Amino acid sequence: MKNPEFIAILQRIAEILEKFQPPKLKTPTFENENAFVWKADQALLSPVKDINRIPIELLRGIEQVRDILLDNTKRFSQGLPANNALLWGSRGTGKSSLVKSVHWAVSEKSKNLILIEIQREDIATLGELLQILKEQKKFQFILFCDDLSFDGHNETYKSLKSVLEGGIEGRPINVLFYATSNRRHLMPRELIENEQSSAINPGETVDEKVSLSDRFGLWLGFHNCSQETYLEIILGYADAFNLNLDKEELFRQAIEWSATRGSRSGRVAWQFIQDLAGRLGKQTFQNPES
């Protein structure tokens, strides 16, 4: 047993086996940061120093859904009952910007509100993350998944269903789940229709898929904006960044910009403002996402 070569072999075997062990859960210091990204492969919550977000008052044309999500988040930060939220609709209409802006607005007063971004590829590891969060009684956590959707071969939606409402343990009371998606039911329409037509019991198959979105208490719809709303967004940005341009000329350029993109949305408006600010030699803050 004291043979040096034999001991060296055992050490190498132990090192190899350690690589196959799941990483230990690492708990960060939530007192110092209020936003994190979940690194599933490392079982790590990585702090985010500068969140990519904009002031909530600059989000125009989505006032109704803004107020609903803001009120829901305020209640949650106070330890009161609140709902999981699914923000669905057209691309570039401000879904993810709203989540980050609402968190910013509420966390300025409620220092216990933490935003954690999780990638859709890591949904299956939510159980591990909840093991960290449920012990942190002093804090309220919003898990945020941007551009959430599932295809026909992805079974991780079952993990999400369990986290949202199902399972023996259930979702910790200090955790909410906010997601954005281009799909109201998180599944492609053609997939739902195909499964309905080919299943032995079509109703049960479709119900299983659609029941995932049913577990979100709030469904907030986002739609392409009118030209009036688009120009209102443009004007709000121009005023915020002191882009001194005649209003008539500002609107003319903004309309031309949207025409070349073939759409009007908050994202298109922001892209125009970035271009305009650059031409005028002015600065804007970090680019918001939509």
Describe the structure.
The protein has helices at 4-19, 63-77, 95-107, 126-133, 157-164, 189-198, 202-214, 227-240, 247-261, 266-280, and strands spanning 35-39, 44-47, 85-89, 113-117, 140-145, 175-181, 218-222. The protein has 290 residues and is of the alpha/beta class. The chain has two domains: 35-222, Rossmann fold, CATH 3.40.50; 227-280. A seven-stranded mixed sheet has the order 2-1-4-5-6-3-7. The longest helix has 16 residues, at 4-19. The protein is globular, with a radius of gyration of 23 Å.
Short description:
With 290 residues, the chain is an alpha/beta fold.
Which structural class best describes the helix and strand composition? Answer: alpha/beta
Largest beta-sheet details: 7 strands, mixed
Do you know the CATH architecture of the largest domain? 3-Layer(aba) Sandwich
What average pLDDT do the residues reach?
82
Low-confidence stretches: 195-205
What is the rounded Rg? 23 Å
CATH topology of the largest domain: Rossmann fold
Query: Fraction of residues in helices?
Result: 40-55%
According to CATH, what is the class of the largest domain? Alpha Beta
User: What count of helical segments does DSSP give?
Assistant: 10
User: How would you describe the oligomerization state of the chains in this entry?
Assistant: single chain
Could you tell me the strand content as a percent range? 5-15%
* Number of self-contained structural domains: 2
Looking at CATH, the homologous superfamily of the largest domain is P-loop containing nucleotide triphosphate hydrolases
Termini, distance in Å? Answer: 63 Å
Order of helices and strands: HEEHEHEHEHEHHEHHH
Main sheet strand line-up: 2-1-4-5-6-3-7
